[in-house]
Amino acid sequence: MTAPVATDIDPRYGEPDATPVPWETTEQRFADAEVYWLSTVRPDGRPHVTSLISVWRDGCAHICAGPHERKARNIAANPDVVLTTGTPALRGGLDVVVEGRVQRVTDPDELKALAAAWEEKYGADWHFDVLDGGFEGGGGLAHVYRIEPSTAFAFGKAPYSQTRYRFAGGSR
């Protein structure tokens, strides 16, 4: 299980009475979200952002994408990504940002467990079969990726706060 090695709150970006958001709260908010935004970098350096679904398992976010998709091509060129989720409300809620490095998942047992996690979270419409080192769900092969966190942020909005979590091996 990935857990932060350091947690701190930046008083410049919060209310005076704000305290750090516990990692367990942030992790649960991230795991429970239904929609996420993945930020990658195109090979020419331009940013790319897309919405997608994700599951949180064993302390890491997991995503999937067809190898021909822009996000998969970007990951192949630069595995550093940012995955975010939150609420559009200005007051109340918690926005979460996870920065990390992507690794492709190909182990059949891990893929089966992840396929079950996707279906449990999102329902039968998101059933995947494990095939050729990835997922097949009717739209062709999708690669499955694990995002190992290096840094994460929780942006509280009642009270306003910014909590930063740093993970072992993270360079940010």
TrEMBL record:
**Gene3D superfamilies listed in its UniProt record:** Electron Transport, Fmn-binding Protein, Chain A
Cite the entry's keywords alphabetically: Oxidoreductase
Q: Where is this region: Disordered?
A: 1-20
Residue ranges of every copy of the Pyridoxamine 5'-phosphate oxidase N-terminal domain listed in the record: 27-134
Q: Which residues form the signal peptide?
A: none
InterPro entries named in the record: F420H2_bilvrd_red/Heme_oxyg, Pyridox_Oxase_N, Split_barrel_FMN-bd
- Identify the domain of life: Bacteria
PANTHER family, per the entry: HEME OXYGENASE HI_0854-RELATED (PTHR35176), PYRIDOXAMINE 5'-PHOSPHATE OXIDASE-RELATED FMN-BINDING (PTHR35176:SF4)
Q: What is this protein called?
A: Pyridoxamine 5'-phosphate oxidase family protein
What taxonomic ancestry is recorded?
Bacteria, Bacillati, Actinomycetota, Actinomycetes, Pseudonocardiales
